[in-house]
């Protein structure tokens, strides 16, 4: 499990690109922190601290979810569902305090007029498979008769669509016809940065986005406490409990590859 490492490689070109996208708000570690860090590493962190962090993260994600819904209601970006706590912190353990990353998975479903088709491949070495998610536009002409105002992506002219309707998901977060994990990660960071000032947490906490290629990672602190939170995003495989997600596999994972993760 190396997703935590992605954001920690300042030499990583892609990470730097993401970093530029989110401005200059990048965490720079003070070398004087080292002594403190070594002390912290020896402390066995009690479970209630993790519980507190998980609770705080869940409350934050609930607030974000309200705004995700509001902001995305009329768009053709993926529909975002309530976050699910994943990873060791939400299982109640962590190797040491320094490494605690509160990871959540945000399930996505296709927006109106679109459908997702998972194309799974077996990698051979493990039971875990990789998926590509093919996005297809769907006819919404029938729905229009039922009072839906959107134009049909398939049966209205390009001119009408361009003038009266926001772009299709195919033209925002996709590469060819497949959602691009890195574009989606940058989109999440933009959403988080735009919504943050409206949240009650913003009164007492400061948010810093951290570079991450395949997720949206940030640190919040209030001068006394701080939490590192990572938003992963994924698509459910049919009606199963399995998700293909943005979480990277060891080695190189291409930007349109979504490994089976949870
Ligand atoms: Zn149609």
From TrEMBL:
Any one Gene Ontology cellular component term annotated for this protein: membrane
Membrane-spanning residues: none
Compositionally biased spans, kind Basic and acidic residues: 26-35
Residue ranges, annotated region (Disordered): 1-35
Biased composition annotated in UniProt, kind: Low complexity: 9-25
PANTHER family reported for this sequence: CELL FATE DETERMINING PROTEIN MAB21-RELATED, INOSITOL 1,4,5-TRISPHOSPHATE RECEPTOR-INTERACTING PROTEIN-LIKE 1
Name recorded for this polypeptide: IPIL1 protein
Lineage, opening ranks: Eukaryota, Metazoa, Chordata, Craniata, Vertebrata
Gene behind the chain: Itpripl1_4
